[in-house]
Amino acid sequence: MAGIGVGLVGYKFMGRAHSNAYRQLPRFFDVDPAPRMAAICGRDESGVREAADSLGWPSYETDYRRLVERDDVGLVDVVTPGYTHREIVLAALEAGKHVICEKPLANTLAEAGEMLDAARAAGTINAVCFNYRRAPAVQLAKKLIDEGRLGTIRHWRATYLQDFIMDPEFPLIWRLRKELAGSGALGDIGAHSVDLAHFLVGGISEVTGMTQTFVKERPLEGSDGETGRVTGWVTVDDAAAFLARFENGAVGTFEATRFAAGRRNKNAFEINGSKGSVAFDLERMNELEVFFVDDDADVQGFRTVNVTEPGHPYAGAWWPPGHIIGYEHTFVHTMKDLMDGIRAGESPAPTFEDAYRCQAVLDAVERSVEVGGWTKPELGGI
Amino acid sequence: MAGIGVGLVGYKFMGRAHSNAYRQLPRFFDVDPAPRMAAICGRDESGVREAADSLGWPSYETDYRRLVERDDVGLVDVVTPGYTHREIVLAALEAGKHVICEKPLANTLAEAGEMLDAARAAGTINAVCFNYRRAPAVQLAKKLIDEGRLGTIRHWRATYLQDFIMDPEFPLIWRLRKELAGSGALGDIGAHSVDLAHFLVGGISEVTGMTQTFVKERPLEGSDGETGRVTGWVTVDDAAAFLARFENGAVGTFEATRFAAGRRNKNAFEINGSKGSVAFDLERMNELEVFFVDDDADVQGFRTVNVTEPGHPYAGAWWPPGHIIGYEHTFVHTMKDLMDGIRAGESPAPTFEDAYRCQAVLDAVERSVEVGGWTKPELGGI
Amino acid sequence: MAGIGVGLVGYKFMGRAHSNAYRQLPRFFDVDPAPRMAAICGRDESGVREAADSLGWPSYETDYRRLVERDDVGLVDVVTPGYTHREIVLAALEAGKHVICEKPLANTLAEAGEMLDAARAAGTINAVCFNYRRAPAVQLAKKLIDEGRLGTIRHWRATYLQDFIMDPEFPLIWRLRKELAGSGALGDIGAHSVDLAHFLVGGISEVTGMTQTFVKERPLEGSDGETGRVTGWVTVDDAAAFLARFENGAVGTFEATRFAAGRRNKNAFEINGSKGSVAFDLERMNELEVFFVDDDADVQGFRTVNVTEPGHPYAGAWWPPGHIIGYEHTFVHTMKDLMDGIRAGESPAPTFEDAYRCQAVLDAVERSVEVGGWTKPELGGI
Amino acid sequence: MAGIGVGLVGYKFMGRAHSNAYRQLPRFFDVDPAPRMAAICGRDESGVREAADSLGWPSYETDYRRLVERDDVGLVDVVTPGYTHREIVLAALEAGKHVICEKPLANTLAEAGEMLDAARAAGTINAVCFNYRRAPAVQLAKKLIDEGRLGTIRHWRATYLQDFIMDPEFPLIWRLRKELAGSGALGDIGAHSVDLAHFLVGGISEVTGMTQTFVKERPLEGSDGETGRVTGWVTVDDAAAFLARFENGAVGTFEATRFAAGRRNKNAFEINGSKGSVAFDLERMNELEVFFVDDDADVQGFRTVNVTEPGHPYAGAWWPPGHIIGYEHTFVHTMKDLMDGIRAGESPAPTFEDAYRCQAVLDAVERSVEVGGWTKPELGGI
Prior knowledge:
The structure is a homotetramer of 382-residue chains. Chain A is of the alpha/beta class and 382 residues long. Chain A has two domains: 129 residues, 3-Layer(aba) Sandwich (Rossmann fold), CATH 3.40.50.720; 200 residues, 2-Layer Sandwich (Dihydrodipicolinate Reductase, domain 2), CATH 3.30.360. Chain A is 32% helix and 24% strand. Chain A contains ten helices and 16 strands. In chain A, strands 8-11-12-7-13-14-15-16 form an eight-stranded mixed β-sheet. In chain A, α4 packs parallel to α5, α5 runs antiparallel to α10 and α8 packs across α10. Chains in contact: A-B, A-C, A-D, B-C, B-D, C-D. At the A-B interface, β7, β8, β11, β12 and β13 of A face β7, β8, β11, β12 and β13 of B. β16 of chain A pairs antiparallel with β16 of chain C.
């Protein structure tokens, strides 16, 4: 098991989550290749040096161009803000590396298309980190669907609700500026719902949506009473919702917002099929609600399945039944499947192509908002 | 307390619920006038006779024209299928009676407008039985909003989920035929969500929606293996969803379906405001989930309020705290407010006008489906 | 269907609940005989007159001795405080009437024994109103057990939690005085848990318990700042808990308290068998949690069964699936079974004998507290 | 930050959990000293070698006597079965090392006393790993109690429910043999409840209990159809329950069982005070239910607090609000506080003395079962 050298670009929230995944993966799963943490990269030298130390990276770089060229790096992992993905990923691919990129793949569909083309040209493994696919309960939902136990899928309804920017004095962080973040709640969290819908239900054929910005002006970061309060415009959506039709005839609703008071991170969905239903809520991510039409008539009801049994997806690698796992484990599982993909020579879903499809849906939603009608995802780039 | 004579037209599911309400009302509430059950009306004499006996009506009629003319009837209550509302209600109004009509007020907006005009001309009390407004938990939500305790309302999300027609062999009942029912899940159960949204959030300015019929052909009622299976076309929606913008700047999502396996009667909504949130689910109708932004930081969380305290709306009239009430109590509360309205000479909301507004939203949704874009409720009739 | 005349003794909380049951029963169930509300009885004439009017009784008496002698009364229903049960019930039995008595049957085991003897001598129908047996979800639990679907029962755990006397200024009502109430939380609400355990698991062979009075002195009723605050001693338990062994080898825990902040009326139990489990909570009385050991391994979990289906016990008589019923319906169901028992000539469980067994357990708990060890229910009186 | 060398004795389930804690601790918390994983120890060389590799230990020993003597080991962590704790811990203390030991500290109170004496004589840091104290939600409960926000504590009720040995063919593992495990559900999982009660409510003054063994004979491990099925006797309890009185006047109930079908790992408790209540369930370990008596009357209800806010105990070190942590994090928190204790020169609770008190309660329960009455924990050894 020679392992594969990993170079991580970015070291904030996602950098911590990915670093943890590389450290934990070989402790709980038999993987071949095993990830070998080679170097972490960031522009601010003191920041990245400290991150390397605290996150467990033996070396660091301050220029991603150097990182992607390193011989001891076989896999480049990109966790920087979305507007920087394109150039880093293209450089890594050009250097012949395997690439995993945080979601969203890019801030625009055009960029995503360029990256997809480059990935195909490179021929290396590519993947996008929509980590919630790897919650055991989500995988269980997928298994039930694939085995036909829910029958024909009719309904998808997803909400991704947060509340962290409700205070009008919350500053104008990069996530609230379109030129940096691409979009707001729609691209940041709604993207997860789209990816889950693709994973569990299938392709989306058309959408119509709306977006809303409740707080239009916010103080700049660092602006305060002493220096004088300076504000700027919020240029992304605070909330977005859309209706969707799936290629297989199912219908769906989606909503993403950062203004749902009391909902810290409610990434929830429900699927109704002709033979049963499932419901999931990330705030109780170890549980899946499951209903079967064919249960005995007097004891039909949603079952609260604690997805921690040895036979449940990924769960056997962790703790005994009833001992729950946490948010970060979804990243460990993502890297598990990435290593398997590298060995098999097959990019693990969601690939760049899957992420492009996701981006195409988000793009279609934005166009539908503009035109006030239904639009189709533009998949010509695939 | 001379009371007011009630004449009820219709005796099936809603007939039972309304009869119960008239019987129970004076036992638990001080009302003036008290309802005096005068006569029940139905076209099938043996059916209506039996209903009169079992539901507690001292006499019956087989022609609504005779019922509305009776001197001992001051209030006509119409609980027949929607396509018959217009003619019965117009007759009752013409006879100078007070009228309460089951929802939907009518099957088309034009009919609803005609009824609204007639009600205004008559000058008697008019009301529409959107009974879920009268669940104590819903009234508590209203109180919190009116007192400003949720702040500015930003989000409304409603689902009304049922599953009773999922079996493709379920017959083509009248509710599945457009000429009789007007619409499917949208008008039958989605109408409740629209009324609740109007009540709690306010007027809806525009909508865009989609509808779907999953099972397009069904056996006729009475058709079976022996007589030969004969089928007909389902001409209403099995499911509907739409996005909405409210006049006050809030945004909303709505979904109604009869194909959500395991959801027997999930009439649920969530409202997010700048200072708090509430969530309701009819299957646990004695509870309201309540969140406040200003709670101490370390103990913020949705409270499960058991809305059975003496100080809660309507609850003091029933049982001690923690002793729940049921579905039918919402009708008792409706009749309580109707009696109060009759005494005060003011039609209690939701009035015909409120129901017209509801109908206008449903109508706009149907038009939006046709045109594939946003439409506005046509309120010219008001 | 000539019906049977009912005479009700008592008109407070339980009087309202029983009156409602008699009014509602024939509206929702086919019963023969049907109850015919004959007269209500109370010592305070103005109070009982008003109660007769508001609760629907055509006449009233101020002396129970006259009530039990009335020719138009075939069934005497006793809902007065426990210390008065004995004399009223004995009089009714002596008059040859059927009798239903509110729980607890008596304040002491000796009294209960005397009443049981009298009931046997009378040969009429006798019953005790432990109404929670008649919640549909409880009946469903019973059905699952009787059909062997939970296997051998191993565990019973019951809590009955309330909080209405937590305020030390709450007055010294009769329920807090041993000479009137017999005991505190143990007899008032713990008795319900014992009855449910008998119903669902079987006979209790021995117990050991503890009791506690947290607030030992309280203001007398009517005593206040103006008249001068006068206090008296609380002579019953505020809380009680006990361990139990059942005759069939199961083990059980019981707790009853009026000092569980936030628990308004949490009458909850869980049963674990070799093949499955059930859990119930009166605050969500339309639901039963059900688990089966033999469910497919990947989808095992407690099912939340909404016990409102046509096939569920009593539920078919009410509303469609998902439309819940309330607290008072348990009394309607009790009277339904009482009428059936009168027709069949067989006292419906829980009979006086069942109530005696319940009383014997409570008595054993009190003795165990005194001796500090295990005691057996004294069933010699049976 | 020189760090402290850790030597771990044992490498099964708890060995994995503790190893993970040492690896993760410095990645998420600033600790001084930081743990330096020195060596792991087990009797089976191939087993321990493999464990060292997979769990991240640079060296291993096969004799604990050698481990405790190593110069590079300053802290000995004992995670072997209970019957071996005494000799290993005594050796480590004699060698002048700091010691952390898995619960239960010992299989008998006498052993625990001997170990407590040795710890005092050694003067090094000692601790026992009752890890559930370190769930953030449990710490929040403690904080609310300490700040007086629940008022005077009146009630404790704890259940620890599992179901993993329900199948009668489940083999006679060491946990089911008294000579190895000391006791069954009582000592294994009930011990956690006792420790939590001590932590949150205070000292227990007397108890009375019962125990039960449902399946008395089981196949030996390795015994099967081919070799011939050989059985042995289960010599510990399958289930235990007891009543308790606390020194501060509160009353408590405890139950521990491995026969609660469907309850995989339900370590739950509820505490009721004069001003509020809290409820916890390990299966949803990121949540705490909180109720306050003084909340506005119309919105009182249990709050579901998602204990993942930056201000919540330990939570700020992990992920943003709403991103849950898992079972193993409780061990990381335990080691965090252990490192702080080593720096401060003060043993972090629960210490050996705390564990002795826990053992004394379990011992009292067992004696109460024998004598059939109330017994007091024997604290003479402290």
